[in-house]
Structures
1.
Amino acid sequence: MNCHRRDILKSGALAGLALSVSPLALGPLRAQDVAPLSLDFDPEGYEILTTTVATPTGDKVVRYRFWKAIPYVARPVDVAYQSLNIGVPVEIDGVEVDASDAPILFANSVGGYMPSSVAEAAGIAEGGMGGPGGRGAGGRPAGGRPDGAPPQGPGREVPSGGNAMLDRGGRRVSNAKLALAAGMVVVEPGARGRTLVDGAGIYFGTAPAAIVDLKAAVRWLRHNRGRVPGNVDRIVSSGTSAGGALSALLGASGDSPLYAPWLAEIGAAEESDAIFAAGCWCPITDLEHADMAYEWNWGRNPLTSGEVVDQDVSAELREAFADYQLSLGLRQSGEGPRITAETMGDWLVERWLRPEATRYLAALSEADREPYLEANPYIAWYEGEAVFDWADFRAHVGPRKKTVPAFDAFDLSSGENSLFGAGQVAARHFTAFSAARAGVALDADIPEKLALMNPMHFLSEENPGRAGHWWLRVGAKDSDTSLSVVANLAASLEKRGNEVNTRYYWDAGHGANEDAADFIAWIGEISRI
Ligand code: DHB
């Protein structure tokens, strides 16, 4: 079954868009013609699989029950994406385990805001985000841009959805497999993504489709409380990059009424979509402020070509960042000095980067530390501590990955432009700055879509549905977005009284996951609370 429902056009969700498509042109398949799918879990519908998982305490052989491609909404737009897989360990190294009340790792495989499908997966995924070319964990090819253009323009790093999570040794890491080997339940939801287009040329996976789908999958789990293995009050989400952003959004926006019409439209279960904890690796989030933040952080760093980006544009965006940062009203460690564009760099260094560099250098043998320090003279190694400043650190990171503006590209070539596509329009502007440059006004639906996609929006107020526990990780050398993004997320969550465990992995790039076993141990600890 592969039904693209057309009634999205009537949803009001696209109100304000001048769509030129007549409903009559959309073909015969309409929501009311399709019998709703059952949301009830079939406990018998599994196969038994065996996998060997490398853990820090050695290989573990895990036998697990595997349920595949379960639709999680009653009226899917495309069931290939709106389905989930479940893995439940029954035996670890020959010893029976009972995971019926275990925490649930809810591991999305979204990358690049592309579609992710688990429908053809042969088991719990090997690691990280979806397969190459924007495929999901199961390798279902995603739709491309109708004009055949790549999702990003020249000189851009393509967020393909194919970046695996890597440990420090460059090996793929799978939170999901480690969770299975620790006796936890793993749920892998698919989700619609920005390039999906139906026969009438309608983009049906653009914002906010992916977050709506993830929420629907959480609701499906709650609907099956007591039938589905695992503790639905201990759902811990994980994701990387765009998937990390969605994990943060899922955690921040639990039970928000803003999503109600979108969820109703696809026949999501009428249940809570709040989660217990969120793990977010290098989240590409706060998109409407990401261009400003990027220039604040990487504005003077050259591109890989050695070229320096337009410094007038960069400076304009950097100035806008100062206002934005001030508007957040954040203070260092809650009560300390304000976190401003002026103080953010030093604060990043003191709070996270210096301790990370110290941890890294302290773990090296003297024979390895010496050449590292020689190659990095900006770091002073003083009484067992790394000392450096923000400007030198920033220069040390080297080339910026993205041109200017990094996200809302003037030529509409970024993945984020396509994330905010709608109807038959493949890509749109989503910031006033880039829209003004293009001489157009922002479409009327953009502010709502931005809010629906941004965890920061939900952190500006109290929300009892917000996850209470957070695991935030990013490589200190990751220039896919500004290093301020995770810092602001962490500070906002701390301000709200949440438990936040944050690290900037030293010298690591995009997609790093260097302490996956610690993450699994953390789930165990917080779940016993
Ligand atoms: C991803 C990377 C990006 O640089 C981006 O802008 C969006 C998504 C990703 O890897 O998912």
Note: The longest strand covers residues 58-71.
2.
Amino acid sequence: MLLIAFEGIDGSGKGTQAKLLARWIREKGYDVFLTKEPTDGAIGKLLRESLRTSCFDARTEALLFAADRSEHLREIMKKLHEGKVVITERYLYSSLAYQSVSGLEMSWLREINAFAPEADLVVYLDVEPEVALERISSRNSLRASVREKEHFERREFLEKVREVYLALAKDSENFEVVDASGTINEVQASVRRRVGRRLAAFEEEKKHSEQRALEDFT
Ligand code: TYD
């Protein structure tokens, strides 16, 4: 019925915000299916392994992300057909942003993901990589000083990923860019405002198409 994707760099708060949004949409009486990529399926597991050990090169990883998505979509489509609102933490746009920064052509990435429909709404949680990395290191209680070089490289990488996300957002009407540097409650309030608007527009459109169908019938 409605596919909402949460996107953002690592540490932008996608998981927390997606859960809170799912709860809010449920309270409005919708059936919600909350899910994520990489999935917990066989290909998703392989991907997590590769992210940890770099056992595959960038091109193979891109193909695996697409394959994982293809499997994921069977489940997503089924839930949409059942009339559910589907919220996914990461989707197609993660591949476009991360894998292009890993050196792969955007046109090729679009091609191998051509089977994936655009999300009805993409909530992009925008945060500076430095802030996101601080959140991650406090979550994992890593000492930044020990991993300074790693931290620096990751920050540079995520800065580029953020640039691609912002360029994608500029080119697409489906994107809502949300400032994710505030508190959990502040960010959630902003997410709800944007999604609420879209939900209302969607309900309106549904009402019209039902009315048209009824008129055609009578
Ligand atoms: P995830 O588990 O969402 O990590 P986090 O919670 O830190 O955001 O995703 C794991 C990593 O996989 C993350 O660094 C982004 C990357 N990724 C891609 O590079 N391409 C993709 O298509 C997807 C879905 C994820």
Note: The pocket of thymidine-5'-diphosphate is lined by residues 10, 37-38, 51, 65, 90, 94-95, 98-99 (CB under 6 Å).
